Amino acid sequence: MSNAEHPAVQGLLEGKKVLITGAARGLGLEFARSVVQGGGSVVLADILAEQAEAAAAQLREQGYEAHAVALDLNDPASIEHCAAFASKALGGLDGLVNNAGMTHSGGKSLEQIDIDVWDEVMRINVRGTWLMSRACLPALRASGQGSIVNLASDTPMWGAPNLLAYVASKGAIMSMTRSMARELGAGGITVNAVAPGLTLVEATEYVPRERHDLYENQRALQRAQLPDDVSGAVAFLLSGLSRFVTGQVLAVNGGFVMH
User: Fold this and answer.
1) In whole angstroms, what is the distance from residue 132 CA to residue 149 CA?
2) Where exactly are the structural domains of the chain?
3) H helical segments located in 38-127
4) Burial profile 57-74: b = 16 or more Cβ within 10 angstroms, e = fewer
5) Do residues 119 and 166 make contact, with C-beta atoms less than 8 angstroms apart?
6) E strand or H helix that includes residue 227
7) What's the whole-number mean pLDDT along residues 71-78?
8) How many C-beta atoms surround the C-beta of residue 47 within 10 A?
9) CATH fourth-level superfamily of 13-252
10) 3-state SS assignment for residue 175
11) Is 166 known to be catalytic?
């Protein structure tokens, strides 16, 4: 777990009840940490159930309210259970961060991607985001100040090669975000997306050094991107400061893509 402190978020999320998917490690865990440091409570959902529980336990040891639940985005029943668990454990739900996702097609050309891999990426990244959002809608509507933050990527913004299934899925997330915002605005729910650049987390360990160099050399801020570089944007979109911000895609990539 990152030991990064987030002094800028202190009090920003006071009383907020947030469910974060893919929160056992990496970006999702960093988001969970920023939520509780901001005064909120959190449910960490992940297919890595034991790792999620260990992370939640560590947050509880630090004095924060944190729970963990197993989540398999392949399974609609698991998604429904996760949403119900989060609402019950937290006593409601003010925010959902759809962070969980997968790549699997990295390094392969469009001619080399296996059809089953393509389908799985779409099922987890796109269908999973839709079903998770749908399952949480009753609790988010009841909140009166619900926020959904979808994790996109800057890869669709510049057309990253040899990553087509993932890029297509994240492009879909951007489009879904806008459509969801239109549909859910009448219920007071904001829907936005954060599009990080290549970030140093476990999920990107397979990325070749050349791709890291491409990002670092062509960013306006020329350094590696870390998980806590993204958490402030997510915290803002979950907070009361962004209640009139919806349907937006915020690129957080050090100026590699300026969207």
Assistant:
1) 12
2) 13-252
3) 49-61, 76-90, 115-122
4) eebeeeebbbbbbbbbbe
5) no
6) none
7) 98
8) 19
9) NAD(P)-binding Rossmann-like Domain (3.40.50.720)
10) helix
11) yes
Q: Identity (one letter) of the amino acid at 164? A: L
Distance CA 2, CA 33 (A): 8
pLDDT digits (tens, 9 = 90+) for 154-210: 999 999 999 999 999 999 999 999 999 999 999 999 999 999 988 877 766 666 677
Lowest average pLDDT, out of 28-42, 180-194, 222-236, goes to 222-236
**Whole-angstrom Cα distance, residue 102 to residue 113?**
14
Quick one: angle between helices 26-37 and 228-238, nearest 10? 50
- Percentage with pLDDT > 70 across the chain: 94
* Residue found under tokens 């336990």: 57
3-state secondary structure of 95: strand
d(CA 83, CA 69): 10
Structure tokens, 256: 């590699």
Place of tokens 């949480």: 136
Q: How far apart are CA 250 and CA 195, in angstroms?
A: 6
Number of neighbours of residue 118 by Cβ within 10 angstroms: 18
What is the Cβ-side half-sphere exposure of residue 166, based on CA atoms within 13 angstroms?
A: 23
**Alpha-carbon gap, residue 35 to 25, rounded angstroms:** 15
DSSP 109-151: -TTT--HHHHHHHHIIIIIHHHHHHHHHHHHHHHHSS-EEEEE
Rounded Cα–Cα distance for residues 50 and 62 (Å):
19
Q: One of 64, 166, 206, 215 is an active-site residue; which one?
A: 166
